C-alpha cells in the first residue's frame, strides 16, 4: 500500500473513530444498551461521517480528472502527424531512392 492510500485510510479512521469514541465513553454499560444516545448526537455523527467520506472520495476523483486530462493531452499531442518532424519523415519516405528515369 502506498503512502497516499495509507493517509486516506488513517484520515477516514480518525474521522469515524472520533465519533464512535463518544458513543462508547458516554456510559459504563455497553454502548448499545440504554440510555441510547440523543438523536442530535447520533445524526451529527452519521452526517459528519458521510460528509468526510464523500469529500475524500470526490476530492480524490477530481484530482485524478486533472491528471488523466493532462496525460490525454500529451498522448494526443504525441500522436499528431502534423508537427514538422513528422512531415520531414513523411517527405523523406516519399523520395525516389533509385535512379530517376
Provide the gyration radius in Å.
30 Å
Q: Overall mean pLDDT score?
A: 84
Element-level helix/strand string: HHH
Number of domains: 1
Counting DSSP E segments of at least 2 residues, the number of strands comes to 0
Approximate strand percentage: under 5%
Fraction in helix: over 70%
Global structural class: mainly alpha
Shape: rod-shaped
Q: Tally the helices: what do you get?
A: 3
Low-confidence stretches: none
Q: Please report the distance between the alpha carbons of the first and last residues.
A: 67 Å
What is the strand and helix layout of this fold?
Layout: H1 3-25, H2 39-79, H3 84-93
Structural write-up:
There is one protein chain. By secondary structure, this protein is mostly helical. The protein has one domain. Helix content is 73%, strand content 0%. It has 3 helices and no strands. It has helices at residues 3-25, 39-79, 84-93. Helix 1 (3-25) packs antiparallel against helix 2. The longest helix is centred in the middle third of the chain and has 41 residues, at 39-79. It is rod-shaped and about 105 Å long. The N and C termini lie far apart (67 Å). The relative contact order is 0.07. The model has no long low-confidence stretch (mean pLDDT 84).
Primary descriptors:
101 residues; mainly alpha; 3 helices; 73% helix; rod-shaped
Compact overview of the structure:
The chain is mainly alpha-helical and 101 residues long.
Amino acid at each position: 500500500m502506498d503512502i497516499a492510500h495509507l493517509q486516506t485510510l488513517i484520515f477516514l479512521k480518525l474521522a469515524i473513530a472520533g465519533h464512535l469514541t463518544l458513543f462508547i465513553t458516554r456510559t459504563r454499560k455497553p454502548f448499545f444498551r440504554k440510555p441510547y444516545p440523543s438523536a442530535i448526537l447520533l445524526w451529527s455523527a452519521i452526517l459528519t461521517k458521510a460528509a468526510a467520506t464523500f469529500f475524500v472520495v470526490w476530492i480524490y476523483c477530481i484530482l485524478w480528472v486533472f491528471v488523466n486530462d493532462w496525460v490525454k493531452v500529451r498522448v494526443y499531442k504525441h500522436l499528431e502527424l502534423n508537427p514538422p518532424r513528422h512531415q520531414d519523415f513523411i517527405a523523406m519516405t516519399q523520395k525516389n531512392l533509385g535512379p530517376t528515369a
